[in-house]
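INFO batch 0412 | record 1 of 1 | parsing
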Amino acid sequence: MIDFVPRRSVLYMPGSNARAMEKAKSLLADSFIIDLEDAVAPREKANARMQVVSAVNAGAFSGSNKGCREVAVRINSLATDWGKADLEAIRHTSINAVALPKVESAEQIQEVAEALKNNPDIAIWAMIETPRGVLNAESIVTAHPKLNVLVMGTSDLAKDMRIPHDSNRSGLLYSLARCVLAARAYGLYIIDGVHLDLENDKDLLIACEQARNMGFDGKSLIHPKQISAANRIFSPSKGVVEHSRQVIEAWKQAEKEGSGVVVVNGKLVENLHVAEAKRILAVVQAIESRNM
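INFO prediction complete | emitting tokens
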């Protein structure tokens, strides 16, 4: 069986906002990134850290009727005054992952992995937010087995590259594709960056469809109103699911009959199509289990 974790919708939540974290129980996001970095002012860092630890330990993200959702905490960079304290505080909790901002080298991942070496259940997510991070994507994804997700930080990346925020993201496409390629080459998940315009639902759908078609597993979000669009776009459609079932059934029948040729809806089916059909059905099963 293919092991798949739904990460269609990954919602950022400020670690300084206790009400927002409490609301997580009612939200249908697949994953949450609790932010101790950009969303928290310097004077609030210590209080936010304690608040996040308390919320996680109290089960704030485990709504009983929404399945077990994934929780990552984005810490401050270890080069700042707060990063090491963040890491020390959360490594003793039940979070699923540490999200490390502005990753540009394998050494940054390895430093966090060393701090988490006695915590086998906590993974690492790498935020790719800078030109250097994009250029070093391959060395980053191979840095340590604890790393299992890349998250694109497109706002910072666009700023550093001096790219305007247009709807087609033409200036970012090379960077996005390069990181998708690195993630796929080494078996990691990859999450697209945020859509900033909360009043433009049409462009949100376009951005989600673009990311899905580029190979992303899901999209990071800044508001709960964006969850349903991401969940829908990054879920296999009914037509795709039905075709996948037909491919698998036809392949099984051909094997039973000893036939070397399999055709579904007029198209030749090969091993690679069967593998993809099985992956799609595993995705559907994982999503259904998450929503039970």
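INFO post-check: The chain has twelve helices and ten strands.
INFO record closed
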